[in-house]
Amino acid sequence: MKQKSMTALISAFSRAYHSENKSVKIFDDSVARQLLTDEEYSQISISMSNGIEYFNPSFIGDEVEALSWIVDNQLSPTPLARAAYAEKALEIAVHMGAEQYLIFAAGYDTFAYRQPNWADKIQVFEIDHSITASDKRKRLKNANNIIPNNVNYIEADFTREMWQTALIEDDAFASSKISFSSMLGITYYLTKQEFERVISAISSILTRGSSIVFDYPDENSYTEKAGERSKKQSILAASANEKMLASYSYRTIEKLLSDYGFLIYEHLTPEEMTAQYFSAYNKSNCSYPMTAFDNVNYCLAVRK
User: What distance in Å separates the CA atoms of residue 169 and residue 179, rounded to the nearest whole number?
Assistant: First the structure.
């Protein structure tokens, strides 16, 4: 049986920590903290701060400072970056006519429960395994968070089942309408064959002008050329039985998308992501700046 994803919970924790502890925010997830019980939040905090010697052997400071260092340097850069990037692209897409938002492997993504005014006219579809989806709804209920009327749940493991049939049969979905899709934090855990099948399936149901956004590990991610943060992240994921499986060059991503009717509209390297999305935060925190995670790129592609 599929269990709750520990990496997904830690991602929610990192977004919650950033939102609650930073005055200038790279991304403000005001709902993430509601998805975690006090016990879970405390346990993750203690576990992470106790691991400071692994993350930073030369660190000097107390437990609170250790937790802050680990979250800012190891845990939150990628979840914050991809969420900020995806939701900015979504807002632009909605203003240009997108009427549907498809969130693949939605996990503990919270967009649907903190919707800005510009999103109230679109239909949001969270596509995920039934166990994860059920756990999320239970957490929202416990937090007295009301699920908006434009939120729809498609319960399916999109790597193994015919999720597109379930989506198409949902009365709220219209294949003729322009859609925006996100696949955040997913490519790492799919084989290249699985990723291609997902892109093929998405292409088959999206009309022209629709778009997809995702993050992916570059070709050096799991080699000796990888940055130290990437190496440690890969080890941590494997220890949680969520081994990272594939990495890609830009040319590989470009060809894969092109084969299924997508053109890359925007592509950001870690350096470009830091410059565009972390600059305001870093100006306010000159002594402790944050950088986008090494070896992680961000891509926005449009269906031709």
Answer: 16
